[in-house]
Write a structure and sequence with these properties.
By secondary structure, the chain is of the alpha+beta class. It has helices spanning about 5-40, 40-45, 135-180, 190-220, 245-255, 275-295, 325-330, and strands at about 55-65, 70-75, 80-85, 90-95, 100-105, 115-120, 125-135, 225-235, 265-270, 310, 330-340. Helix 1 (about 5-40) runs antiparallel to helix 3 and helix 1 (about 5-40) runs parallel beside helix 4.
């Protein structure tokens, strides 16, 4: 007989080893791609703003990171500059219209906060801040963002760890190939099981790579908001009392808002030109407060979801204040439901709006 069982098994094993080497090469390429994607966020180049030494300068923008007493701030032109805080830097919170400012400490400066900073440049091209100012609305929004940035950053670290684990599993597969070379009695069924495991590792690598891309998109959208719902309610002359129609509109808005994720409610009250400026300013604030109270007490909107109500007086006319019809449209409160794009994964669902003009 010319059959050689031992030789046949050896040929099968050598063929299996060669296949495992090709598979390991594919896995190494996938792991390298995953590592590159995981570092993609940090490698995106951003324009840099520098400040001339010993010259006064101002900057308006959003804090994108904080390390000790150093802030990275992205301005309206997307350029990123470095702001240095000192023991003499004044950090102030605007109280609102004609209410002055409140002193704050550096702990209030968190990522997502929109600030105004002024100071002098240093030799490093950084701005040494004399004063940093921000408003309550931005502070509330930044806190919402800050509570979500930490989990997203943690997920990025977990994905990078997973990439290392996958590379380790590739090494384990190579060791198993060596065992197959010395174990000539390895069966075709066992080889099939190894190939299945390699396929699972490649699938896991692809899923982890997609996860890094998704995280990158969500971080980019953390300071972007969409108006998902809006409504305008109207008032009688010198009145801050909600009409039945206004209550119905607010009930509908609250029901829709409770179905959203990561939402905030913005409320702005207005008045017509009837009366003095001070009276109209106070009246517009009372109207905004009336809407806030109704949303909290009857619409079940949590307090932390509502930005500070703003009384805007006679500013931002909706119609001509010189006519009775126009003044009706100016006695109003505008309510918007804002949804954070980063929290909902950057979905581009169309926004809806509801604005019913007064029928009085």
């Amino acid at each position: 007989m010319g059959d050689d069982p031992g030789g046949v098994i050896k040929k099968r094993v050598m063929k299996t080893i060669q296949s495992m080497k090709h598979l390991r090469t594919s896995i190494a390429v996938s792991v390298l791609a995953l590592g590159t994607a995981a570092l993609g966020i940090s490698k995106v180049e951003q324009p840099t703003r520098t400040f001339t030494a010993d010259q006064n300068a101002k900057v308006d923008g959003v804090i994108i990171s904080k390390e000790g007493t150093s802030l990275k701030v992205r301005g309206d032109d997307d350029a990123i500059g470095t702001i240095d805080l000192t023991n003499t830097t004044k950090i102030q919170l605007k109280k609102g219209f004609l209410r002055g400012k409140t002193a704050m400490d550096a702990n209030a400066l968190v990522p997502g906060l929109h600030i105004q900073a002024q100071g002098r440049g240093n030799e490093k091209g950084e701005l040494v801040a004399d004063k940093v100012i921000f408003d309550p609305n931005s502070m509330r929004a930044s806190k919402q963002i800050d509570t979500r940035v930490a989990p997203v950053e943690a997920r990025t670290g977990a994905l990078e760890t997973r990439a290392g684990t996958l590379e380790g599993r590739a090494g384990q597969l190579e060791n198993r190939a060596g065992q197959l070379e010395t174990a000539q009695k390895q069966t075709e069924q066992q080889v099939g099981q190894v190939q299945t495991q390699v396929g699972q590792v490649k699938t896991s690598a692809d899923q982890a790579n997609q996860g890094v891309v998704d995280v990158n998109g969500r971080v980019t959208n953390l300071d972007n908001y969409d108006t998902k719902e809006s409504v305008t309610v109207y008032f009688k002359i010198n009145s801050a009392t909600l009409s039945p129609e206004a209550k119905k509109d607010l009930d509908d808005l609250a029901a829709k808002a409770l179905n959203e994720k990561g939402y905030l409610v913005e409320v702005a009250g207005y008045a017509d030109k009837t009366g003095t400026l001070s009276v109209n300013q106070a009246l517009s604030q009372r109207r905004a407060d009336a809407v806030i109270n109704y949303l909290q007490q009857n619409g079940n909107i949590p307090i932390h979801r509502i930005l500070s109500p703003a009384g805007m007086g006679i500013s931002h006319e909706a119609a001509d204040n010189n006519t009775a019809a126009g003044r009706k449209l100016n006695r109003r409160v505008e309510v918007k439901v804002l949804v954070n794009q980063g929290v909902i994964g950057g979905s581009n669902q169309p926004s809806s709006a509801n604005s019913n003009p007064p029928n009085r």
